[in-house]
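Practice problem: predict the structure.
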Amino acid sequence: MSDDSDVEFGAGGDPRMRGFKTRTGVEEVLTWIEERVYPLQSEEIALRDACGRVLAGDIVATGAVPPFDRSAMDGYALKGEETFGASDYTPAAFRCVGRSRPGQRSPAIVGRGEAVEVATGAPLPSGADAVVPVESARVDGDRVLVCAAFPQGRNVSRRGEDIAAGTTVLKAGRVVRPQDLGILSAVAAARVAVIRRPRVAAVITGDELLPGGTPARDFRIPDVNSVMIAALVDRDGGRCDVIGPVPDDRKTIRRAILDAAARADLIIVSGGSSAGPEDHVPGIIAELGRLIAHGLALRPASPTGLGVLRDPECPALMLPGNPVSCLCGYDFLGGPIVRRLGGRKDRWPYRARTMPLARKLPSVLGRVDYARVRICNGQLEPVTSSGASILSSVSRADGFVVVPAGLEGYAAGALVEVWCYDDANLSEIDTVGRLGRGSSSGVDQSVRQAKSDPLD
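Answer:
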């Protein structure tokens, strides 16, 4: 992360019980992240562990693949020109002088009128330049009768046919897929240099919180944000350690943040980020470093903030305790930071579809809206329960529509871009939405580009 600037947005003092004087635009904070958050250093790992990791450098083939001429069929290797004119009525006859199997090349050198029995993948014998498949030959004693013409090179996989020596087979920045492991193995990359996975510490705060998954009691509720944040970080290529729940005590929270900073590349604090009497986190971040932004022009995550700790230097993302706001703040700021640290693209890991709105989707000028929607009858229905604490609104939603700050919303029937949480759980598999249409840059472009069909 670069520390060459002290630019701050909306970090004008302690807002507790006074509210936010101003709210920072989402675009400003995204620009700060783009300009100052860089990939972590590389590490070397075993080939078998490389799937899903980001390559730190180009992978160049040091040798040819395949490394020798080999048979592409089960059959007989021979000189192709000797099969010219062969047919069912006048087959060309060859004497079988050996066998070649995968990993075992026949010592025989194929001369005129000779053939070597070969298996698929077996080295091509010396002197042979074509392979006749078994379907086009008959065996008569020690003779092989070929019933069709097979020119030079037919059914032969040449040395370097797949990958020539010196070829860049995978580029730096690529997220390794399962099939890429085969390429890495083929070019003898037993160990691979990849970007280190970001270490994220999620500090969960709140006197009212119990450990996740435990029954509510005595006016206390189970923490839901830690498991959600950890899963989102894992999805984006990071590793998440959860600290807490931590009580709303300034000294305890401060100690937890300092402990987390000693071993993390990013700190995410859930809760305590707003303007209430127990919202200590922004003041702690300002004391330990500096606030970049606190209070965003974003709904439902306006209390989100971003800062940088001084020693050790570490970005700190402050997310609201309300679960929907927590998810929204992570999607807009946390995800891009984790992905950039891990060498991945900024764009959202969601599929985009362009679909019509079933009804009006209002918004407010100057604020970005993260509106949850469901796909019903080929149209987008805004989820009615849209409060920041209604976590079920996200589970019931198929995705979300981003209303840029420059619009007052969208009219009923407007074609808008919906970002689908996944394809497997869509309320309805529609025929109107088209995968992949529209922006591919995700969070950036959805925030920054006002779409057509504004609200009437």
